Amino acid sequence: MSQMIVSYMSEEERLAYIAKNPIHPSKKTAKDYRWRSEKGAAATKAKAAAKKASLLEK
Questions:
Q1: Cβ proximity of 17 and 9 under 8 Å
Q2: Buried b or exposed e, range 12-44, using 16+ CB within 10 angstroms
Q3: What is the 3-state secondary structure (H, E, C) of 1-58?
Q4: pLDDT number for residue 35
């Protein structure tokens, strides 16, 4: 069996790591329309489809 090695960062090391490697939200997020009304969800999907179609025409 392999051995597991555990290491811990000090608070200063953790802050330096976060400063060097900031967390950025991803641009592609899955949208959840379940909380919205069907009409609102349909309008949002139609708007996205129209935007995609206009980009494909260019």
A1: yes
A2: eeeeeeeeeeeeeeeeeeeeeeeeeeeeeeeee
A3: CCCCCCCCCCHHHHHHHHHHCCCCCCCCCCCCCCCCCHHHHHHHHHHHHHHHHHHHHC
A4: 64
Q: pLDDT: is 37 or 6 the higher one?
A: 6
- Smallest CA-to-CA distance from 31 within 16, 46, 44 is with 44
State if pTM tops 0.85.
no
Q: Read off the pLDDT of residues 23-55 as tens digits, 9 standing for 90 and up.
A: 887 777 666 656 667 777 788 888 888 888 888
Residues 6+ apart with CB under 8 A from 41: 33
Place of tokens 């025409």: 57
